[in-house]
Specification:
binds magnesium ion; alpha/beta; binds thiamine diphosphate; Rossmann fold; two-stranded antiparallel sheet; five-stranded parallel β-sheet; about 45% helix
């Protein structure tokens, strides 16, 4: 698959930004600088970027508890996100969302979501709004292998077909739901066929390969945008950290993590593909690496220096009245 150079550079930059954001967040959590429960997306970057590179600003995404990567890929401001993780009132959600509830309506980011399979129904609502308004938007939900046996996921998939709405269900199979392997949790061994049973096409991707995800997501999004109803993407992927930061990961096989980092790294795979095709030089990619490291450093310094909420601000935006006036 051949893409314009600008697009290639951007895709790599986005994946690298997610990787370094997550690795730095990990370090800052371990240092005690970031409070709260955090799930890192390291290893899965190609999925978020391969999908979001097809989306416009006004298309919507809904994410999961492992949502930093989806938000960055959809265009969330990295400094605003780091401030959010640090609980600053200057954060994207004034420090009240934190890691698991980053949102930015201006960017079509309807929010990360702590409820497993809470996203698919929301994306059907967003897709129905797009269909009624005839604005050509698509609504993407990202969810994990742990979401696929949830009733909300089934209901959303069925309703999307019935209403023929432009919803795209992206399922990232990282083989674990918390500490339980998919082989134990899912009763059938052909999830693609089971999902297609709802009545929409599902495109399969290698989640460690940006180009594979980009191609599969392109077909699914084109299908939905053209008014043919929902579509799905199934990507096999791997998370390089535990379920949450601090997870001792005793359920992993020996050598599993080393193998993942060595053989399922989307950044390494991207570099290998570029080296073989000659479309980008390693120097160009190194320059992006350096710029990303500077941005991440800047985001942490800004987050550490940023204001913390005052006692008065803590109770702002807690309730809303439906005449449109926020109340304390
Ligand atoms: C409805 C619901 N049930 C259980 C949980 C607890 N929980 C949080 S994350 C998680 C596992 C999700 O696995 P998966 O969907 O594969 O996503 P991953 O963590 O692998 O990204 C569970 C069971 C929850 N948050 N919501
Ligand atoms: Mg999973």
């Amino acid at each position: 698959m051949s893409l314009p150079k600008e697009k290639l550079l951007r895709a790599y930059r986005q994946m690298k930004t997610i990787r370094e954001f997550e690795e730095r967040a990990h370090a800052e959590i371990m240092n005690g600088q970031i409070a709260g429960f955090t799930h890192l997306y390291t290893g899965q970057e190609a999925n978020a970027v391969g999908v979001c590179e097809h989306l416009d600003n006004d298309d919507t995404i809904i994410s999961t508890h492992r949502g930093h990567g989806h938000c960055i890929a959809k265009g969330a401001d990295v400094i605003g996100m780091m401030k959010e993780l640090f609980g600053s009132s200057e954060g994207l959600c004034k420090g009240k969302g934190g890691s698991m509830h980053v949102a930015d309506m201006e960017k079509g980011i309807l929010g990360a979501n702590g409820i497993v399979a809470g996203g698919p129904p929301i994306s059907v609502g967003a897709a129905l709004a797009a269909r009624i308004r005839k604005n050509g938007r698509v609504a993407v939900s990202f969810s994990g292998d742990g979401s696929v046996n949830q009733g909300t996921c089934f209901e959303a998939m069925n309703l999307a077909v019935v209403l023929k709405v432009p919803a795209v269900f992206v399922i990232e199979n990282n083989y674990y739901s918390e500490h339980t392997n998919i082989s134990y949790a899912v009763g059938c061994d052909d999830l693609k066929a089971r999902t297609e049973g709802f009545g929409f096409p599902v495109f399969v991707a290698d989640g460690a390969d940006f180009f594979s995800v980009y191609e599969a997501a392109g077909k699914a999004i084109e299908h939905a945008r053209a008014g043919n109803g929902p579509a799905g993407v199934f990507a096999e992927t791997g998370r390089f950290h535990g379920h949450f930061v601090g997870d001792p990961q005793t359920y992993r096989a020996e050598g599993e993590l080393d193998d993942l980092r060595e053989n399922s790294c989307c950044l390494k795979n991207f570099r290998t593909t570029m080296q073989a095709s000659g479309e980008l030089s390693m120097e160009e990619l190194d320059a992006i690496d350096a710029e990303v490291m500077t941005l991440i450093e800047e985001s942490v310094s800004a987050a550490k220096a940023a204001a913390r909420p005052t006692p008065e601000q803590v109770t702002e935006d807690v309730y809303i009245n439906y005449s449109g006036q926020a109340s304390a």
